[in-house]
Amino acid sequence: MTRPAIYSRPNKPLTIPVRKRGEVAPLAQIEAPEIITVDRATECHVTPDDVAGRMVDYLGPQGDYLTLEPSAGTGQLARALLASGHSPRELTMIERHHQLAAMTRKIGPTIHGCFLDYADEVKGRAAFPRIIMNPPFREVRKHIAAALSLLGRGGHAEPATLVALVPVTFEHPEAEHLEALPPDTFSTARVHTKIIRVRRD
Q1: How confident is the model at residue 121 (pLDDT cuts 50, 70, 90)?
Q2: Residue 64 belongs to some domain of the structure
Q3: DSSP code of 28?
Q4: Residue 114 sits in which domain range?
Q5: 3-class DSSP state for residue 104?
Q6: Weakest-pLDDT range from 34-43, 76-85, 138-147, 186-195
Q7: Distance between CA atoms of residues 87 and 143, nearest Å
Q8: Which of 28, 122, 152, 181 is the most exposed place for a label (fewest CB within 10 A)?
Q9: CATH number at residue 149
Q10: Coil, strand, or helix at residue 161?
């Protein structure tokens, strides 16, 4: 008795199911998760919504004020500004981290770069009647000094105003202490913080 060859073709034809082009469901678009925590690359301490809202209130009444957000991060302060009625056309955001800058571009125009470099470049040529900021805590003095170098009334009758969230250890002769924030305001940073304001006529 002869054994059948194991490689012999069966009587039935071999068939492979093939889908027509267009029948395959498109792949779902994968979006990178938003960066909402602090790390060494971003130094981004996300301002809570309620704190951001109060900081905007401390700036004063809304109007046609050019407003600077020097460390835009995830855009929390910018969103609070827009929610209060501020025009995105009068808002300048600066963010050095490329992923964060991509996020804030969805809110409004964003300059991708270091704020300290930007301040050096435009000093004497640009003045912002409103500045709102949550600067990197490790270089808070440099960032506040750079921001104050750009603070100016710009033809407005109201005083030029800067509102900033800073460590409680930060002091400046022009700074008005507005409020101390709870110790758990930033879960990723064990830094006690406060809100200050500087006004210049």
Answers
A1: very high
A2: yes
A3: P
A4: 49-200
A5: helix
A6: 34-43
A7: 24
A8: 28
A9: 3.40.50.150
A10: strand
